[in-house]
Structure prediction request, 201 residues.
Amino acid sequence: MTFDALIIGGGAAGLSCALVLGSAQNKPFTVGKCIGIVTHQKTSHLQTALFNNVLGLKPETLGADILDDGKAQLAALYPHIHQIDKEKVTAIEKQAENYSITTNKNTYHSKIVVIAVGYTNLMTITGLEHYIEPHPRTAIEKDRIWLKNEDHLIEKGLYVAGTLAGWRSQFAMACGSGSHVATDILTLWNNGKHTKIHDKI
Ligand SMILES: Cc1cc2nc3c(=O)[nH]c(=O)nc-3n(C[C@H](O)[C@H](O)[C@H](O)COP(=O)(O)OP(=O)(O)OC[C@H]3O[C@@H](n4cnc5c(N)ncnc54)[C@H](O)[C@@H]3O)c2cc1C
Prediction:
């Protein structure tokens, strides 16, 4: 399967990116675009998080519930976004026209890849080694990493979002980072015209 954009990681940044891309479904510049997300959630930092300090979330919201609800929201509102479940990405390779993305079960191709797999130093996706550096905004003893990028862009067609993009670990910042990358991709598809997606009453 060949995607126009494939998001890797079903945590805060990845799901936020997918929701914003999905919400552009009626824009003419997204017609025919094939979008997917590898919704791996086992190692999300949301799994053990409890939220009291996020605007719009009821106090004591569980991160684990956000993970389940996020996938359900994406499936209900934007079913055209392909959710790839129960797969873990093992390699990303740049090819002439696109990227190949290998999981433990399949190989996919995509023109654009968004990496949103979190900032732990256990990241084991081959092909990304030469972008990995110590995280610029965490305590050194935490041993966190980022993928070196400029405004989320690593190189043409390859984006990083969330904590792995260099942001500190706060839920709203990770969601904002994923949304930011989504609007960059939409802007690209809209021939460089700055783009955002709003619903109105
Ligand atoms: C205990 C705890 C409490 C917290 N409390 C708060 C709080 O009170 N307030 C607050 O604002 N923030 C809090 N946070 C921080 C918040 O959870 C993180 O900032 C946020 O989850 C980071 O989002 P992310 O998308 O960068 O990473 P994650 O949410 O960790 O998502 C990364 C995703 O990538 C997936 N993945 C990893 N490897 C692969 C692979 N090879 N292939 C495919 N997918 C992969 C993972 O399974 C995961 O779903 C807390 C975190 C923890 C751990």
In short: The CA atoms of residues 8 and 187 lie 20 Å apart. Residues 171-189 form the longest helix (19 residues). The chain has a mean pLDDT of 97. The chain is about 20% helix and 25% strand.
